[in-house]
Amino acid sequence: MTEVWEQLVFYLNFDVTQRALIAGVLITLCSSLLGVTLVLKRFSLIGDGLSHVAFGAMSVATAMDLADKSILTLPVTILCAIALLCMGRNRRIKGDAAIAMISVGALSLGYLVLNVFPSSSNVAGDACGTLFGSAAILTLTNEEVIFSAIISAIVVALFILFYNKIFAITFDEDFSKSCGTKVGMMNLIVAVLIATVIVLAMKLVGSLLISALVIFPSISAMRLASSFKKVTVLSCAISVFCTLAGILISILASTPVGSTIVAVDIASFAICFAIGKILGK
């Protein structure tokens, strides 16, 4: 145990580890804030669909050899979030069908672009790294951490600013509309925020595992708390803890960062579920 602690302290002295922990905490904090609303509104699959869109946009940015791939990935993912919101209201194309169309289409086109315009000789490795996460989170620059901090601060500020309205549309859109709330605008803000968080989280867990950051902390918190505010706060705490633990375990055990974080999230849900059963919640 002493050797593990000494090894952990050794790695924590490196700037790359500190930057990874800071960025990881910021990203998961934002995803857990929005996750509660998405789970309660049964919009969880939107996060999964947009993560596939982000993969497709990232593939195009890679083929274009862009230095900062988020320049293309972020606006494309936001536009698709808006498109999903509009298509979900279309009576001819139901919400789940719209998500399936966009997500599967973006995923297949992204992999096609990677093969037609390869950026390296290991196309399968590049795709796997983007889909399931890579060691990129451990090689973040100061500029990337600052960018993550700015975006995260904006997401948290908007969530706090519109907290009452987000709370209202989460449970009853019709009543919110009758009270004068612009439901369409609020849904649009939530969609744009989740698209932004997904683009940030791609380096942390990969595009296929992003939904885990949104869903698991939220449903874990729901096993223990009953009010919206308590669930949101507890979800943030669980998410931050799981991310810190996952990153540190992955460094010590030399395991994939994204998969390790999700594994810790799963273990956390199992524990919360058991505690909830014992407490009768």
From TrEMBL:
Residues that span the membrane, as ranges: 20-40, 70-87, 99-117, 145-163, 184-202, 208-225, 232-253, 259-279
Gene3D superfamilies: ABC transporter involved in vitamin B12 uptake, BtuC (1.10.3470.10)
InterPro entries the record matches: ABC_BtuC-like, ABC_TroCD
Protein's GO biological process: response to zinc ion; transmembrane transport
Keyword Transmembrane helix tagged: yes
Protein's membrane topology: Multi-pass membrane protein
CC terms in the record's Gene Ontology section: ATP-binding cassette (ABC) transporter complex
Entry keywords, A to Z: Membrane, Transmembrane, Transmembrane helix, Transport
Subcellular location: Cell membrane; Membrane
Pfam families assigned to the protein according to its UniProt record, in alphabetical order: ABC-3 (PF00950)
Family statement drawn from the similarity comment of this UniProt entry: Belongs to the ABC-3 integral membrane protein family.
Protein name as catalogued: ABC-3 protein
